[in-house]
Amino acid sequence: MSVSTVLSTTATVLYYVCWPIIIILRLLLAALTFIAAPILHVAHYLTYGVLWPIRQLAKLETLYIYFGVAALVGILTGAVLHYSINFIVRTLGIDRVTEERGRTLSSYRAEKSERQAQKTRQTLPKVGLKPMRLDAGLKEDYSDWLKQDKGFSTKGLLSTTILEEEDSSEAGF
Fold first, then answer.
1. Within the chain, what is the greatest distance between any pair of CA atoms?
2. Are 54 and 48 in contact (CB under 8 A)?
3. Measured at the alpha carbon of residue 90, what is the angle toward residues 88 and 96, in degrees to the nearest 5?
4. Distance from chain centroid for Cα 168
């Protein structure tokens, strides 16, 4: 017997021995696909929905490549400028000297408040003079005048608007 006949015979025997197992497995697979068809259908649409943003991003591929390259060029240009300026400053010896600034905001405010305090001290009456006191009679006489509106109301734009008078003539011009 030759090797080819032995192999041929062995393959034929194995085929007929495994054939019932293969048939049973094919029937089980057909039944499982029939039962799982709705689940597979739903899973297909779920994966379609989940992958939708990625498909939309793929449409913008040229834009994000463009912006990515622009960002890299900007970063490289900034780095080159930074290091070249630092090199020039160091070689020419023109480092920044910490100069004392003139006035700071807090010193300006302190000077301003001091000037205002000095102004108020100058306008105050002398120490020997006493301020005039209102007696009860004067208060009663002028109480109506103090309470009345002096025309300076802060009601907004209506208080400053000049209203036109209506025309009293019957001609209506």
1. 149
2. no
3. 100
4. 61
For the chain, the distance separating the N- and C-terminal CA atoms, rounded to the nearest angstrom, is 135
Instruction: Give the predicted TM-score (pTM) of the model.
Output: 0.32
Sign of CA dihedral 40, 45, 50, 54: positive
> How far is Cα 169 from Cα 154, in angstroms, rounded to an integer?
35
pLDDT single digits (tens) 16-69: 999 999 999 999 999 999 999 999 999 999 999 999 999 998 899 999 999 999
SS3 letters for the chain? CCHHHHHHHHHHHHHHHHHHHHHHHHHHHHHHHHHHHHHHHHHHHHHHHHCHHHHHHHHCHHHHHHHHHHHHHHHHHHHHHHHHHHHHHHHHCCCCCCCCCCCCHHHHHHHHHHHHHHHHHHHCCCCCCCCCCCCHHHHHHHHHHHHCCCCCCCCCHHHCCCCCCCCCCCCCC
Provide the token pair at 56. Answer: 């939309």
For 117-147, the pLDDT digits (tens) are 888 877 765 555 555 555 666 666 666 666 6
What tokens were used for 93? Answer: 């010896």
